[in-house]
Amino acid sequence: MGVHDLARQLLTGDDPAGLMPAREQMALSLGWHIVLACFGVAFPTMIFVVHRRGVVRDDPVALALAQRWSKVSAVLFAIGAVSGTVLSFEMGLLWPGLMGRFGDVLGLPFAFEGLSFFVEAIFLGIYLYGWGRMPPRRHLLMVLPMAAAGVVGTFCVISVNAWMNAPAGFRIVDGRVTDVNPWAAMFNSLVWLQFTHMWVGAYMVVGFVVSGVYAVGMLRGRRDAHHRLGFSVPFAFASVAALVQPLVGHLLGSTLVDRQPAKLAAFELAITTESPSPLRVGGLLVNDQVRGALDIPVLGSLIARGSFTEPVPGLDTIPVQDRPPVNITHWAFQSMIGLGTLLALAVLVFWFARWRRRDPLEHRWVLRFAAVAGPLAVLTLESGWVATEVGRQPWVVYGVLRTTQAAGSNSGLWWLLAATMVVYAGMTTGAVVVLRSMARRWRAGQTDLPSPYGPQAQLRDAATEPGR
Q: Which of 53, 297, 323, 330 has the fewest CB atoms lying closer than 10 Å?
């Protein structure tokens, strides 16, 4: 598909008025919220590790780190609650054709996700206000249900997306959805692989982002035990995730040839079916011709099909109306692969140096790369979601419901998009201001930052009231 074909696809007069604003709104909301969701999945586990170290080894540095991380987690959870609520309303508002038709199919995972949210909020509150008020080991255990709830909630949301890629749990008879089995829809054939890919990706994002914060601190001369431990624990999680993720991604991608051949063809920029197929690095599709790509013979068949001869089906096998926007899909996929490979190689070099009994953290170039690894991991995650979602087009439910059929006709959604951009900009600014303020106060020596409505604040206020 060339540039002119893509323009005609996006701007055709047959599209409902609400399609483009709905696409933009969903891209903004999901792209923003997915980073916070990663912290809900991975951060509690890291908090548990440092807290357990503090309890078992009687390590005050680890305990202080766990307490600080829990307060950061609370800030991110509060912001994620807002963006998650926005998303829950958007599903029905932006895509009435989807929820109106398949609401009964998708209701179960959304219900469980809501319950998981409340469980996570309850135990996060208990953990936050339990410092010094509960036996240490019991207090430590409060992290476990919080962590489990974050994982379960994310699984439920991912199950909906997996269902959109591999629909199950219903039949369509005379144009109506019948024989609904919400359990079959939730546990569809793709859910475990797609959830694993997201779960591992969450540890990459959080691990590299958090370790990058401490890398910046060490670059500024703060090389104490607090910063070293704050770097080491999340970086270890990120390292394992960065090395496991290519395997999980390969397993997930190997299902595309039978499940979504159009997406695979766009990933590989395969215009025609070639045997064996090359790996096409870079390049653009311009007027149905590939321009500027580097072809590596045979490697495309080997990676995509696990064979030296099996071809990657080309776009010539896909009807024009069923092809995704090829250039966006191809570049998002290659960005994900390239950045993920770079991060995996970087952690291999780091741990090889440690194995040789050298300290990589003594080198400023290592710390500089660690500082940028967080943003690179976020960009990798976002690229993966762009490849997944844009590559599924023009289907919102693959092979069943087109995106144009799911969108509404309300052109006023552009105003909603503008309002959402303002709200998200405000939340982003607020989060940065609050977290930077907390960091400054910690560096100034304030070991405890009580929450304004927590037990400590209430006791302090009571003690200062007249007549007390």
A: 297
